[in-house]
Fold these 3 entries.
Entry 1:
Amino acid sequence: MQQRPATDPTSWVFQGCIHGVPPTITETNEAFNQCPHGGWFFLPWHRGYLYYFERIVRAAIKEIAAEEKITPDPSTTWALPYWNYALDAPDPNPVEDFTSRALPEAFRTPKMPSHPEGDDLTADNPLYLSDAQVLRPDFWNIPHRALDKNSAFEVLPYTDINPFRAMSQTVFSATHSRQTDQPSFGSEISYTSMIHFRRGFGELENVPHNQVHGGVGGWMGAVAGAARDPIFWLHHSNIDRLWSGWLSKDNLNPDHTSWLDQQFIFFDENGQIQRPTSRDFLGIDPRDYAYEALTEGAGTRPAVVPPAPVTRAGERVLAAANPRQVLSVHGPTEVSLEPVGDAGRSMRAMVAGHAPETGLILTVHGVRTDVPPGTPFHVFLNGHGGELDPSGPYFVGWISFFGAADVDGSLHDHGGHDASFDITEQVHRLHEQGLLPDGPVTVSLVPSVPRPAPALAEAAPAGAVAEAAPQPSFERVSLTAV
């Protein structure tokens, strides 16, 4: 597939462009740039994408088997695997050993045997992408993952890929607004809109989907390049498996015709255009595949359940900080929120529980990055004594830069977004436990997997060039009442 011309619908490049098109591709097609994120077509569209991709790969295997006279024909039993990254739950006594959160070995090994039965490891492995820090303008010229991601150890902490909260939802999609903000398994109701990137992430799309994309980083961390990293397909196979597992718990898909009859565009193994609908992908049997297990790696209950992400920023601003600030990829970035007007008194009243009908929304506005930083970020509220544990009481939630990478410097329709969290219950709980200080509200944004800090200038060799790093940033932070 990688050797086929980009104009061939069964080629690696063409199939990747169906998801998103990087600026290095000049070809156009009506099937390009389709991927819907943050809307309720996220799951059925990606299931169709997987289904036709699997058929294309199987046909390629059959063709190679015939040319090489390989028997029995392996295409008759081949199926797309899934990366079950949440299979290994956290160990209270961890040891340095392989974890399911590591990239599978076949994807992080540069060489492979030259023939199916060989052990010579002399052929280039087409599943491998180097792990390197690649900044603009070379980002799209070098297929890569984020620095150090081809590791035999964990790619992401378990906190960032635990699907428990998603699997605990009972509603597929909800309409998010100021009046209604119901957490849901799938993403926001988007009616007939196939929005390329939207902010109404459902629980599954938020965790683990976005966090895995951001954690692998490189091309996988950017919408336009994600499907060009082979691990993309195993990641989405697992997301689809979790959907099947969720349905096996007697949950239901939408029954609205605008969801059922939405048409997508794909190509089959013969390069022929296909226009299936969501309805065509609702059952496993009609599409002839099943999953080995639906309950393994489906999540474990966290010690502390963080607040739910929301799509509203609230109405009355109580406190705000307005720096356009670059986030450190090496450690915490702290922001102190200054009360607006008489907000200090109002906020203290809310915290004390005197206004239970009022909600508090914490929003990090204008999240963006030059290139994917290779890690999600954790958000904390007033971490006492610097306590920045995602399993602790101060943890608010995640910021993923998947869909917010401004690699081309143009911030197209999926560049930059706001991350909002309903912290009402959390603030009351912190107050009741005496964990909320009387001083200003402080928000800490911390890389999930911090990069080692570069050497101090005085310790660096003469003539050394300072290490370049991604520049994730945010526009401002606000605390609002609804």
Entry 2:
Amino acid sequence: MRRTAVTRTITKLAVATAAAGALAATTGAAHATARTPDTATASHAARQAAAAVCTVNDNGVNFRGGPGENFPVLGKVNAGQKLNLRGQQGNWVMGDLWGGRTGVWIHVAYLNC
């Protein structure tokens, strides 16, 4: 299911990029420098954008000060909470909670990325 959402995102990005390139070409705006990115570049950008946000998949999930159970619990989040992905170490993801703390760590089992 996650692959389908990523594929849709990639397709939408490719269509939007092509439309922007066509508009620039027909209006003559920056026609000397305008260039439509190739499909591989658009696909890579879409994959990065899709992977940049994770969603918590359970209620009462601890977020910690570091990548492991030996780090202090800083708080709890519930299913649906979004996290901007900033990095990963082993099975722990580090990121910024939407509307909340930054630089927190959550185990990958509790995230859909």
Entry 3:
Amino acid sequence: MHLEDYQKFDATGLAELIRRREVSQAEVFDAAVAAIETLNPSLHAVVRTRFEKAKHECDQVLENSVFAGVPTLSKDLLMALAGEPLAFGSASLSAWCPKQDSLIIQRVRAAGLVVMGQTATPELGLMGITEPKAFPHPQNPCRKGYSPGGSSGGAAAAVASGMVPIALAGDGGGSIRIPASYCGLFGFKPSRGRVPLAPAHGEVWQGAVVEHAITRSVRDSAALLEQINGMAPSGPYPVPRETGYVDALSASSKPLRIAVSLGNFLSYGLDTQLSTDVKIAVEKAAKALADMGHEVEWCEPPVDGDALADSYLTLYLGHLAADLQWVSQQTGVPVHRLAIEPSTRAIGRLGAKLSAKDYELAKRYWHEAAEQMSQFHLRYDALVLPVAADTAPKIGELYPSAARERLMSLLAVPGASALALKAGVLKHLAVDALSRTPFTQLANLTGQPAMSVPFHVAANGLPVGVQVVGRLGEDKQLLQLAADMERHGGGVLAMKCLSNESNV
């Protein structure tokens, strides 16, 4: 199978070819190896490969399974492969190997996907860009020198370039939707608890983190979710396995009442500047939805964006402090001697100084926001808003400067972290971390399903996705709407990256 033929198909299409015996599993496998070996040296999407083990696993896949031996990639974060490195994007865990597979890996394999390797992520998945100091930085296949976003930036770069048609990804504050938007792909974040994080974790970031995938088509996303959803035996959320995600795509969505916003309620106080192209993308999506027969109304949800950002970052700090303690336990290295980036160390120190009261008050606001959105959804079935304030940034544009890192290192001074929190450093962190991407955390905090659908190409040639947030638990309805949007102009931008050879 030639590389250009391999890249024409999504995962569902490749699986159909295999089942019809038009190509063999071995031919598809070899094409994926060729794609990764050809493209990755310049794109740096994949941090490690496992071709020999993957070939053995491919030989065991049944041709009548859902994905029939189609190649995929897992993320170098949380997605454990027993006895194989899982570095979390950090030098501190470069030699660490988990003892058992994650449940998502088990379910992915049972569905017939073959894991070819692991994709790049920022250290501990902390940033909306993928620029870890321990690994090369992935390039956006749509334009060289630009970031594919984060934290699932490696996954997005791999799919957009045609290395694999589908890559596993995780989302704790937008980490599926942001890279999908930056790379012209479809990115779906399921409802809280829909995809388990067992056995290593019951929940991560108080349930904000959900794992799924970045894909070139809605049908691939639906087919995968059908195979991996459903609670683990030890899971903290009673979310039984659902079916019917793929079948829902074949019928047009019933007329819905859809709210549209430019996200001002979330970006207030964060110095966010929305680009013209992002506004155009949202307006195009609103018009397309109206043309499809939905009732569209411009409306701002009743959520306090300032409080949302503060509560998100408070728990973010607290969990990082706990994560660093976990890394220390796994490696036997004291926290203060871990090989971590200055920004990670500084944020961890701030988190260690938070009180239980601060942490609990932040979590209570998550519940308040969830209640506000549940009331909002009594009137509206879905909410359309931006994914990010602009197209993909240049590599290095958003990473803390050397001067900022030196300032962060001052938090090592005894008492400095506590003083920094009292001085309101959390607000400065919010502006630094969220000003470009303040729109995606809402769905993580409330637990709602949300997605990025490609809908526009900016003047600089980079894709722009629009975000759609659905009612809690209504993943099927949201995917059905995504399929309609895909048919009406979304979901075609990834091909632009594949065809732009000069960028890769």
